[in-house]
Design brief:
The complex is a heterodimer of chains A (about 170) and B (about 180). In chain A, about 75% of the residues lie in helices and about 0% in strands. Chain A is an all-alpha fold and about 170 residues long. Chain A folds into 2 domains: about 1-90, Rna Polymerase Sigma Factor, Chain: A (Orthogonal Bundle); about 105-175, Arc Repressor Mutant, subunit A (Orthogonal Bundle). Chain A is elongated. With about 180 residues, chain B is α+β, with helices and mostly antiparallel strands. Chain B has one domain: Immunoglobulins (Immunoglobulin-like, Sandwich). Chain B contains 4 helices and 7 strands. In chain B, strands 2, 5, 6 and 7 form a 4-stranded antiparallel sheet that branches. Chain B has a 3-stranded antiparallel sheet with strand order 1-4-3, with no helix packed on it. In chain B, strand 5 (about 145-155) and strand 6 form a beta hairpin. The longest helix of chain B is centred in the middle third of the chain and has 26 residues, at about 55-80. The relative contact order of chain B is 0.12. The chains are: A mainly alpha (about 170), B alpha+beta (about 180). The interface of A and B includes residues 22, 138 and 168 of A.
């Protein structure tokens, strides 16, 4: 197992863990924070913290769930600091174009959903992204967020309802 | 909400939009390298102070409470704030459930002597003492309910402990206090 290999002193094993889980972590963080630059910062922090705490990793849990729980904490902290400075929505235009290609309709829709996501309360955004973007089940979400399953279901439902309203206001019926 | 609805795949504009959010960004090579280097670096504590907001608030609260406690103690001991419950009978009279306790101090040449303590809120003017005919002894009788009381004399504005009584070991903030034990029935 990769974690055991890292603990045994194999640096290449940690690189493999990063390669395997970084894309999903960057996706989660960028959906939470609204831009890739901040997402890279918190994801790096999360991996470094995970590396230092690897001896405490419980193999009963999937590594992805464990590192996501660290990452979710880093995102919450980043949002807290950002909230103190100013609220902002940053759309990474180049990344959007690269990700969605030439279909203008998708680019606009992506723009709209990112703006709508940014308007959700962070706990609702977190629950929605974990459920419908990361496609995790509620037990994994509970392990990551520390919230109960019932609360998470409610957050996801409210997030969906709110996002639908916001998309409708943007002309997406 | 039904379980089916909870796990239902999103449809309509929200479903389409959510699928766009599922695109995974490709980590930049420089970023990957930075992560691996940072992970290998030994953990060092930052030189500067970094305090979490909750910790800062707790520390401020602790400072305020400590400061208030010290201020309260000093005021109580030096001036008598009346903040503590007064359990002594005023003017030295004895009420039901109280026992008469006579306090005396030798203070030749003093002009004004009073007693302060747990029983009168450390109020320096609450319980004046009376000079006896010998001209040097001051005394007062106070009605006290059974208990333990720290006290001191105020001789012309200066606190003085009762040399004939045990010294209070606590809560004195540097002020010499004595202690009296009043027995129950």
């Amino acid at each position: 197992m990769l974690v055991r290999a890292v603990l045994a002193g194999d640096p290449a094993a940690f690189a493999l863990l990063v390669d395997r889980h970084a894309p999903a972590c960057l996706r989660f963080a960028s959906r939470m924070l609204g831009n890739l630059e901040d997402a890279e910062d918190v994801t790096q922090e999360a991996f470094v913290r995970a590396h230092r705490a690897l001896a405490r990793y419980d193999e009963q849990m999937r590594f992805r769930t464990w590192v996501m729980s660290i990452l979710a904490n880093r995102c919450r902290t980043a949002l807290l600091h950002r909230h103190r400075r100013t609220s902002r929505v940053v759309i990474d235009g180049a990344a959007v174009d690269e990700a969605v290609g030439p279909e203008t309709g998708d680019a606009e829709l992506r723009d709209a959903i990112e703006r709508a996501l940014a308007r959700l309360e962070p706990p609702q955004r977190e629950a929605f992204v974990l459920k419908h973007v990361e496609m995790l089940n509620y037990d994994e979400m509970s392990a990551i967020t520390g919230a109960g399953v019932s609360a998470l279901k409610m957050r996801v439902r409210r997030a969906c309802d709110r996002l639908q309203v916001l998309l409708r206001e943007d002309g997406y019926e | 909400m039904s379980e089916q609805r909870e796990d239902e795949e999103l449809t309509g504009p929200l479903g389409r939009a959510t699928r766009l959010l599922q695109d995974e960004p490709s980590p930049r090579a420089e970023w990957r390298e930075a992560v691996l280097q940072a992970a290998e670096r030994p953990a060092v504590r930052p030189l500067g102070w970094r305090v979490r907001p909750a910790v800062a608030i707790a520390a401020c609260a602790a400072c305020l409470i400590t400061g208030a406690a010290i201020t309260y103690g000093v005021l109580r001991d030096r001036m008598g704030s009346g903040a503590r419950d007064v359990v002594a009978s005023e003017n030295g009279s004895v009420r039901q459930g109280q026992l008469p306790v006579r306090f005396a101090v030798e203070a030749p040449g003093a002009v004004h002597v009073s007693i302060v303590g747990d029983f009168n809120g450390w109020n320096p003017v609450g319980l004046p003492m009376h000079r006896l005919s010998d001209g040097r002894t001051w005394e007062v009788e106070v009605g006290l309910a059974p208990g333990r009381y720290a006290y001191a004399f105020v001789v012309d504005g200066r606190l003085s402990r009762d040399s004939s009584a045990p010294e209070s070991g606590t809560d004195d903030f540097g002020v010499p206090n004595s202690v009296v034990l009043v027995g129950g029935s």
